[in-house]
Amino acid sequence: MSKNDPFCKMKGMQKKEIDTLNFSNILNRLYERMIGALTVKIATEKVIKMLNQWYGMIRQQKVEQAIAIKDEIENMLPYMEEDQDVLLYFNVLDFRHKIMLENLNESKLLFKKLELEKEGIEKTDALLQYYFYFFSGQYEFHNKNYIKAINLYQIAEDKLKQIPDEIENAEFHYRVAIAYYRIKQHFFSLSHAQKALESFRADDSYSEKAINSEMILGANKMDLFRYEEAEMHYKNALDKSREEKFPYAESLAFYNLGLNYGRRNMLLESANCFRKALEIEECQKRRLAIKVKFNLALILYKLGLNNEAQSLCEEGLFDAQKVDEKEYIAKINFIQAIYDKEASGKIEESLEYLEEKKLWFHVAELMLEAAFHYKETGNITKAAHFFEKAHCARNQIFKVTEGLK
C-alpha cells in the first residue's frame, strides 16, 4: 500500500489524535487528583495541635519559629473542617502574636474585632476564655493602662484555675509581676515574680523567661533601695543570657544594670552599660533601644556631654515617633526642655501624656531630675517648684491602686 494512500494518512492522523487524547487524559486525571487533594478537609485536631505549638513558641519568645508556624497554619485554615471555635482560637493567638511583635496598630484592630466576638468567646471552654482575658490584659499593659491590665488579669485568673498547666501558671505570674511593678506595688510584684522564676527554672525550655523573671526581682529591689541585691540579680541574668546565647535578654540585663548604677550616681558605669546594650543587634530591633537612648542621654547630660546627649535625644525621638511611643516622646522632650535652653518652654507640656496615663512614678522621677538640676545651677526658685511637684506626684502613686477591683 502506498504511503500516499488516503487510508494510510487516516491511520497516521488517528495515531496522533490518540496520542494527544492520551496526554490530555493524563493531565485531566492529575488535575482531578490535585483538586481532590485540596478539597480533602484537614482535621481540626491537626490544626489545634499546630496552634498549641505556635503558642509554645510565643511563650518561649522564639519569634522566627512563631512566625513560621503561623504562616503554616494560615495556609491550612482554608482547607480545615469547619469549626468556629478553632477560628476564634486562631484569632486570639494571632492577637497575642502581634503583641509579641510589638505591632500595636494591628493588635488594636484585632482587639476591637475580638471585643465584638466576646459573647461567642464566653460560650467556649475555659482555655479560650482565659486566653482572651489574659491577652487583653497584655494589650492594655502595652498601652500603659496598667490598672485595666491587672483587672483583666484577675478575670483571667478565675479561668486559669481550671487549666492544669504549670508553665501557663508561670506565664501568668510573670505578666502580673510586671504589671504590679509598673504601679509600684513591689511586694505583690516580688511574690508573683518569685513564683514565675521557680516554675520557669524547672523547665529548660523556658530558661530565657527564668532570666527575665530574675530581672523583675532586681527591678523591685532597686526601687526598694536594695541596690546591691538588685545588682546581683542583674549580673546573674547577664551571665546566664550570655552563657545560653539570649542576646535580647543580655541587652535587657545591661539596660537594667545601667539604671541601677545611674540611681547610685555611678554615672560612668551607667553610661558604659547603656552603650553595651545598644551594641547588641536584638536591642536595636525592639522598643528597648528607645528606652536605652533616653536613659543614656540623661546620663550624658549629667556628665556635661551635651552634644552627644542631644544627638541621642534626636535619635530616640525619631524612633519613638515612628512607633508612636508616647511615653518616651514625653520623657525625651522633658529632659531636652531642662538641659537645652531652646526647648525650655516644653517642660509642663511634655508631662501631659504621663499625667493622663497616671504614670506618677515617672512624673516624680522626672520632677526630681529637674529639681536637682536647677539646685545645682543655682536656680533655687525652680528647684523648689519641682521638688514640690515631685512630692505631689509621689502622693498620686498611692491613689492609682484605687482603680483595682
Explain the overall architecture.
The chain has helices at 6-39, 44-59, 63-76, 84-100, 104-116, 118-122, 126-142, 146-160, 166-182, 186-201, 207-223, 227-243, 247-263, 267-279, 281-284, 288-302, 306-322, 326-339, 352-356, 360-376, 380-400. It is built from 21 helices and no strands. α9 (166-182) runs parallel beside α11, α10 runs antiparallel to α11 (207-223) and α13 packs parallel to α16. Among the domains are: 14-164, Serine Threonine Protein Phosphatase 5, Tetratricopeptide repeat, CATH 1.25.40.10; 184-286, Tetratricopeptide repeat domain (Serine Threonine Protein Phosphatase 5, Tetratricopeptide repeat), CATH 1.25.40.10. The longest helix is centred in the N-terminal third of the chain and has 34 residues, at 6-39. 38% of the residues are buried. It is elongated. The chain is mainly alpha-helical. Keywords: Hydrolase. Its EC number is 3.1.-.-. Pfam families: RapH_N. GO terms for molecular function: hydrolase activity.
Summarize the entry for a quick read.
Its EC number is 3.1.-.-. The chain has 405 residues and is mostly helical.
For the record, the CATH architecture of one domain stands as Alpha Horseshoe
Strand elements, count = 0
What's the total helix number? Answer: 21
Overall 3D geometry?
A: elongated
Unreliable spans: 1-21, 34-38
Defining key terms:
single chain, mainly alpha, Serine Threonine Protein Phosphatase 5, Tetratricopeptide repeat, 79% helix, 0% strand, elongated
